Amino acid sequence: MIESSLVAALLADTSVTDLVDDRITPVAVRLEAGLPAATFARQSGSREWSFDGAAAAAATVYVLLTAWASEWPDARTLADTMRAALDGYSGGDIVVASVTDGADTYDRDADLFGCAILVQIEFEEA
User: Fold this and answer.
1) Hey, which residues does 98 pair with through a beta bridge?
2) Coil, helix or strand for 123?
3) Residue range 91-104: mean pLDDT, rounded
4) Among 122, 15, 9, which Cα is nearest to 65's?
5) Which residue of 51, 69, 79, 92 lies most exposed, with the fewest beta carbons within 10 A?
6) Are 8 and 86 in contact (CB under 8 A)?
7) CB neighbours (10 Å) of residue 29?
Protein backbone atom coordinates (compact mmCIF):
# COMPACT_ATOMS: atom_id res chain seq x y z
CA MET A 1 0.00 0.00 0.00
CA ILE A 2 1.29 3.39 -0.97
CA GLU A 3 -0.26 4.77 2.21
CA SER A 4 2.49 2.99 4.16
CA SER A 5 5.10 4.93 2.19
CA LEU A 6 3.23 8.17 2.85
CA VAL A 7 3.12 7.53 6.60
CA ALA A 8 6.81 6.53 6.58
CA ALA A 9 7.69 9.83 4.90
CA LEU A 10 5.78 11.74 7.57
CA LEU A 11 7.33 9.76 10.43
CA ALA A 12 10.81 10.39 9.00
CA ASP A 13 10.30 14.15 9.32
CA THR A 14 11.09 15.36 12.84
CA SER A 15 9.01 18.51 12.41
CA VAL A 16 5.98 16.20 12.04
CA THR A 17 6.92 13.73 14.78
CA ASP A 18 7.64 16.60 17.18
CA LEU A 19 3.90 17.34 16.94
CA VAL A 20 2.28 13.89 16.62
CA ASP A 21 4.90 11.37 17.69
CA ASP A 22 3.51 8.32 15.81
CA ARG A 23 -0.21 9.23 16.00
CA ILE A 24 -0.99 8.86 12.29
CA THR A 25 -3.82 6.37 11.75
CA PRO A 26 -6.09 5.24 8.92
CA VAL A 27 -9.50 6.92 8.66
CA ALA A 28 -10.37 7.38 12.37
CA VAL A 29 -8.56 9.42 15.01
CA ARG A 30 -7.68 7.40 18.12
CA LEU A 31 -8.43 9.78 20.99
CA GLU A 32 -6.90 7.50 23.62
CA ALA A 33 -3.51 7.89 21.92
CA GLY A 34 -3.47 11.65 22.49
CA LEU A 35 -3.60 14.83 20.44
CA PRO A 36 -2.71 16.32 18.11
CA ALA A 37 -3.05 13.42 15.71
CA ALA A 38 -3.47 12.80 11.99
CA THR A 39 -5.62 10.49 9.91
CA PHE A 40 -5.28 9.40 6.31
CA ALA A 41 -7.91 8.13 3.88
CA ARG A 42 -7.59 7.25 0.21
CA GLN A 43 -9.96 9.36 -1.88
CA SER A 44 -9.41 8.04 -5.40
CA GLY A 45 -6.80 6.68 -7.76
CA SER A 46 -6.01 5.89 -11.38
CA ARG A 47 -3.61 3.74 -13.35
CA GLU A 48 -1.96 4.19 -16.73
CA TRP A 49 -2.69 1.44 -19.21
CA SER A 50 -1.04 0.69 -22.52
CA PHE A 51 -2.91 -0.08 -25.73
CA ASP A 52 -1.45 -3.59 -25.79
CA GLY A 53 -3.16 -4.41 -22.49
CA ALA A 54 0.01 -4.55 -20.42
CA ALA A 55 -0.47 -4.19 -16.70
CA ALA A 56 -0.38 -0.74 -15.21
CA ALA A 57 2.95 0.48 -13.94
CA ALA A 58 2.38 4.17 -13.24
CA ALA A 59 -0.34 5.07 -10.77
CA THR A 60 -1.72 8.14 -9.05
CA VAL A 61 -3.68 8.17 -5.81
CA TYR A 62 -5.20 10.98 -3.79
CA VAL A 63 -4.99 10.68 -0.01
CA LEU A 64 -6.74 13.03 2.39
CA LEU A 65 -4.63 13.80 5.46
CA THR A 66 -6.50 15.43 8.32
CA ALA A 67 -4.79 17.03 11.31
CA TRP A 68 -6.87 16.78 14.50
CA ALA A 69 -6.49 18.81 17.68
CA SER A 70 -8.56 20.21 20.52
CA GLU A 71 -7.83 23.76 19.30
CA TRP A 72 -7.95 24.99 15.69
CA PRO A 73 -4.48 26.65 15.68
CA ASP A 74 -2.87 23.34 16.70
CA ALA A 75 -4.69 21.48 13.92
CA ARG A 76 -3.69 24.15 11.36
CA THR A 77 -0.05 24.03 12.50
CA LEU A 78 0.05 20.25 12.06
CA ALA A 79 -1.61 20.43 8.63
CA ASP A 80 0.87 23.08 7.47
CA THR A 81 3.78 21.02 8.84
CA MET A 82 2.60 17.89 6.97
CA ARG A 83 2.16 19.96 3.80
CA ALA A 84 5.71 21.27 4.05
CA ALA A 85 7.05 17.75 4.63
CA LEU A 86 5.23 16.23 1.65
CA ASP A 87 4.90 18.88 -1.07
CA GLY A 88 7.45 17.91 -3.70
CA TYR A 89 8.54 14.84 -1.72
CA SER A 90 10.18 12.00 -3.65
CA GLY A 91 11.53 8.82 -2.11
CA GLY A 92 10.93 5.12 -1.62
CA ASP A 93 7.89 4.07 -3.66
CA ILE A 94 6.79 7.67 -4.16
CA VAL A 95 7.88 9.23 -7.45
CA VAL A 96 6.48 12.61 -6.42
CA ALA A 97 3.88 13.98 -4.02
CA SER A 98 2.08 17.29 -4.36
CA VAL A 99 -0.23 18.86 -1.83
CA THR A 100 -3.27 21.13 -1.97
CA ASP A 101 -5.18 22.56 0.97
CA GLY A 102 -8.45 20.97 1.97
CA ALA A 103 -11.36 22.10 4.09
CA ASP A 104 -11.30 22.73 7.82
CA THR A 105 -13.87 20.89 9.91
CA TYR A 106 -15.20 20.55 13.43
CA ASP A 107 -16.31 17.25 14.96
CA ARG A 108 -18.93 18.26 17.52
CA ASP A 109 -19.18 14.77 19.06
CA ALA A 110 -15.44 14.54 19.74
CA ASP A 111 -14.99 18.31 20.24
CA LEU A 112 -12.09 18.32 17.77
CA PHE A 113 -10.94 20.67 15.05
CA GLY A 114 -9.68 19.17 11.80
CA CYS A 115 -7.60 20.75 9.04
CA ALA A 116 -7.20 18.71 5.87
CA ILE A 117 -4.70 18.56 3.03
CA LEU A 118 -5.08 16.51 -0.14
CA VAL A 119 -1.94 14.68 -1.25
CA GLN A 120 -1.56 13.55 -4.86
CA ILE A 121 0.94 10.69 -4.99
CA GLU A 122 2.48 9.42 -8.20
CA PHE A 123 4.17 6.06 -7.88
CA GLU A 124 5.24 2.97 -9.79
CA GLU A 125 3.32 -0.20 -9.02
CA ALA A 126 5.26 -3.42 -8.73
Assistant:
1) 120
2) strand
3) 95
4) 9
5) 51
6) no
7) 22
Name beta bridge partners: 99: 119
Give CA angle at 124 (103, 67), nearest 5°: 20
Question: What are the residues whose beta carbons fall under 8 Å from the beta carbon of 17, sequence distance 6 or more?
Answer: 10, 11
40-84 residue pLDDT tens: 999 977 776 666 665 657 889 999 999 999 999 999 999 999 999
Per the CB < 8 A criterion, the answer to whether 63 and 121 are in contact is yes
Give the chain's domains with CATH numbers. 2-124 (3.30.2000.10)
Tell me the average pLDDT of the chain: 93
* Cα 123 from Cα 115, distance rounded (Å): 25
Residues 6+ apart with CB under 8 A from 57: 48, 124, 125
Whether the upstream peptide bond of residue 36 has omega within 30° of 0, thus cis, is yes
Give the pLDDT of residue 54.
57
Pairing of strands 58-69, 112-124: antiparallel
